[in-house]
Amino acid sequence: MRSLLVAISLAMAAFPALADTTAVYEGFGDFKLNIEIAANGDFRMPAGLKPDQYFLVHNGEGFIVLSTAHGAVVDRLSDYERAKAAVIDKQAPGLRAMVQSEEPPAATPADALVEIGAVTVNGRAGTGYYVDQQSAADHGAPDYVISHDPALAPLSAAMRRQSDMIRQLGGGMSITSASDKALDKLLETGGPLAFGPFKLTSLSIQPIAASRFALPAPPETPAAIRARIKTPDTN
To answer: Looking at residue 2, what is its pLDDT?
Structure first.
């Protein structure tokens, strides 16, 4: 029994305890992209340039929080997706079916990610990538820098989930292109040190107040979402 307990203790020591993570990215004017991730995988990250509009995963379920003239509005993304689809189908019958029937263009060598080797971002080592051959030919800063540091693994998972949440906002009108799929695969390999103009400037492994992941208001009903989409005041 003692040997078993020792083995369990050693196994647990081999894996870091789950912890809350806060990452800050900068690089677009004065805007700071703050991503807060709870130990259980819930997260909060901006859904635009307004700090009071954000994506939220609460108890594993995806939401978007919007700022309106009447205060914060919370939409369950699964409800929003269905409501948006219903509005599109009523306003443009057959459009969604047509879009969904279209096959995205097949991947070509020009669409492939171009790896450029080791890149350091604010003292953290990663691997740089251009999103395609044209971007590489322009010789600018890499579009993505990916780190395999386990401390950034929560960022990898959160950003992959965010990509799915963004697609849900399309109400079935979003088509995943070959380049989108390549980027999703890239994020499976590690957490981003840089993407587009943004660079990771701060990473904190400290407790985050549970209130940061709480819903600021009850979710709208599907009927309320449909009504607001028809006469939007925020989106």
So the answer is: 43
CA distances from 162 to 7, 44, 46, 167 (A): 38, 10, 10, 9
Q: Which residue, among 64, 57, 41, has the nearest Cα to 219 in the 3D structure? A: 64
pLDDT(14) > 60:
no
Instruction: In whole angstroms, give the CA distance from residue 106 to residue 30.
Output: 38
Rounded to two decimals, the pTM is 0.82
Q: Are strands 31-37 and 21-28 parallel, antiparallel or unpaired?
A: antiparallel
User: 3-state SS of the chain: helix, strand, coil percent to 5?
Assistant: 35, 30, 35
* HSE of 73, CA atoms in CB hemisphere, 13 A: 19
Crossing angle between the packed helical segments 153-168 and 178-187, to the nearest 10 degrees: 150
